[in-house]
Design brief:
- InterPro entries: DUF6663.
- It holds the Pfam family DUF6663.
- It is built from four helices and ten strands; from the N terminus they run E-E-E-E-E-E-H-E-E-H-H-E-E-H.
- By secondary structure, the protein is of the alpha+beta class.
- The longest helix is centred in the middle third of the chain and has 13 residues, at 84-96.
- It is globular, with a radius of gyration of 17 Å.
Length: 197
């Protein structure tokens, strides 16, 4: 039995296991480690794919896939320093007693280059971990940006400062743009080599 659908790639393991988020049901799917007909090793967290899954075994395998949007997700824990716009957004949230805040980011020419969200870290479930493992999907935040800015590939950075009091989700509007490059350089998270994106 094959089942086609739209999925967000959450993780790709070295042994070929793929963790996907069904974009319609928000259910997570973990594939088999082998038996795939699609180029699994070329996928990266954040990619939005259309895939046909073969469910004839308990763990499905990928029969075919197409990358719809090669957005990249990057997770960095214990960052230092916290960039100014994020620090300001968090301070504003604290002043108003809110557990989250958002604002656009701008380059030195005052042009919008991204959107950032700050969320209070949750000691019980772990906001950072829930974004990383997909139990709290990033899709609604990315979809909101895409509704305003078009459906281009993005770079999404989920960052937790050393203090672990809050989590930053930054969506760089231009994949491979200066803002994304600056974040990658500042937080030492090189862009992966992409053959499908």
């Amino acid at each position: 039995m094959e089942n086609g659908g739209s999925y967000r790639v959450l993780a790709v393991s070295n042994d070929g296991e793929l963790r996907l988020l069904n974009r319609e049901t928000h259910e997570q799917i973990v594939t088999a480690t082998g038996g795939h007909d699609g180029p699994i090793s070329d996928l990266h967290p954040g990619y939005c794919i259309d895939a046909d899954l073969d469910w004839t075994t308990t763990e499905p395998s990928v029969r075919s896939l197409t990358v719809r949007q090669p957005t990249l997700y990057t997770f960095v824990d214990h960052i230092d320093p916290v960039f100014e716009a994020a620090q300001q957004a968090w301070q504003n949230a604290q002043l108003t007693g809110d557990s989250m805040n958002s604002q656009v980011t701008r380059n030195t020419d005052n042009e919008v280059n991204g959107v950032l969200y700050v969320f209070a870290e949750d000691d019980a479930s772990g906001m950072f971990e829930s974004f990383r493992d997909g139990s709290r999907p990033l899709d609604p935040l990315v979809d909101k940006v895409n509704e305003q800015e078009g459906d281009d590939p993005r770079e999404v950075f989920v960052l937790r400062p050393e203090s672990e009091t809050f989590v930053i989700v930054t969506i760089a509007l231009e994949k491979g743009g200066q803002f994304a490059d600056t974040l990658r350089e500042t937080y030492d998270c090189p862009r992966p080599t992409e053959s499908l994106g």
